[in-house]
Design brief:
With 322 residues, this protein is α/β, with parallel strands linked by helices. Helix content is 45%, strand content 11%. The protein has 13 helices and nine strands. The strands form two sheets. Strands 5-4-3-7-8 form a five-stranded mixed beta sheet. It has a four-stranded parallel beta sheet with strand order 2-1-6-9, with helices on one face. Helix 11 runs antiparallel to helix 12.
Length: 322
């Protein structure tokens, strides 16, 4: 059994504390679901820089290159305090595997945060990241970072959780420093990599083979850079279908014609966006157990994160902020 527990930083207002600007909190089902499976770190940057609960809202003011964090009602500027807090926070925590942060927050929002040209009501704005979220992304560019709005979408949630647990598992393998742990890690992630980026999958295989007998420190370092790049973008539908067809080749001879047709139809439903990826994947997973296909059973592709996080909500119809 896999006992990997990713380190995740959560915005504290996501069900951990009543620390929003209005004294409230936000209930997000995924946050509640994921709590038992991760190491939890919570943060409220706005409270940390001395703003009270409740408090007058703050906003980002500036342009694409320079922003200030201002409280329009009072004229208070907390930019320097926020920058200092971000540096302190980063120095005090173990490197995180991921973040789940508050959507559109001027401090925590990973994206789609309004940056106003001035402090006046109704001022024009552009969309960037919150100040705390931007500092975290700069310090940990390969961490999995999402907000509670976007993870309502099954596709986004699956990509986030797949990356999150992959990052944590690689961290554990890298900590060991042993060649056999890297070989085992790469072997179990072959189908995930096949779905995400086949070119990088082959390059990673060559790094693991280590034909020039480089030090394991160098091998792990080279592997880490390429592995994180390979998983940055979610797989295309055609890539996911190719992986499932690859797995189908290990099983198809043992299936009845109607079973084959049922599975292939589920792939077409997914291709045409009439079903989520969880449908054909669940069918394949049941056959892996039924026929005891050890190679496929070992692949993280079919259980990239704990099965308890795969539920009936995975319809792919959640709200996705643009």
């Amino acid at each position: 059994m896999d006992h990997t527990r990713p380190r995740v930083v959560f915005s504290r207002c996501l069900g951990f504390d009543n620390c929003r600007w209005n004294g409230g909190t936000i209930s997000e089902p995924l946050v509640e679901q994921i709590k038992p499976f991760v190491e939890i770190v919570t943060v409220c940057p706005e409270v940390a820089v001395g703003l009270g609960i409740p408090r007058n809202p703050i906003r980002l003011v500036g342009d694409e290159t320079t922003q200030s964090l201002i409280q329009p009602e009072t004229g208070l500027d907390v930019t320097d305090k926020m920058i200092a807090f971000c540096k302190r926070f980063l120095s005090e925590i173990e490197p995180p595997d991921g973040f789940i942060l508050k959507y559109a927050s001027p401090s925590c929002g990973p994206r789609e945060v309004k940056v106003y040209v001035n402090e006046k009501r109704g001022a024009a704005s552009i969309r960037l990241s919150g100040m705390f979220a931007a500092a975290m992304a700069d310090a940990h560019p390969f961490a999995a970072i999402e907000d509670e709005g976007r993870i309502k979408s099954f596709d986004i949630r699956q990509h986030f959780l797949t990356r999150l647990f992959a990052i944590a598992r690689f961290r554990e393998a890298q900590t060991s420093g042993r060649a056999r742990d890297l070989v085992a890690f790469h072997s179990r992630y072959k189908l995930v990599l096949m779905a995400y980026n086949q070119t990088k999958m082959r390059e990673l295989g060559r790094i693991v083979a280590n034909p020039t007998k480089r030090s394991m420190g160098r091998v792990f370092s080279d592997y880490a850079k390429l592995f994180h790049l390979a998983l940055l973008r979610a797989p295309r539908r055609t890539s996911a279908i190719n992986v499932l067809m690859h797995g189908f080749g290990y099983i198809s001879d043992q299936l009845a014609p109607k079973e084959k047709a049922f599975f292939l139809d589920s792939l077409e439903q997914y291709r045409n966006r009439h079903a989520s990826l969880s449908v054909p994947t669940s069918i394949m997973r049941s056959w892996i157990v039924r026929f005891d296909v050890s190679y496929l059973a070992d692949q993280f592709y079919f259980e990239p994160y704990p099965k308890e996080l795969i539920d009936v909500l995975d319809s792919g119809k959640g709200r996705v902020p643009k």
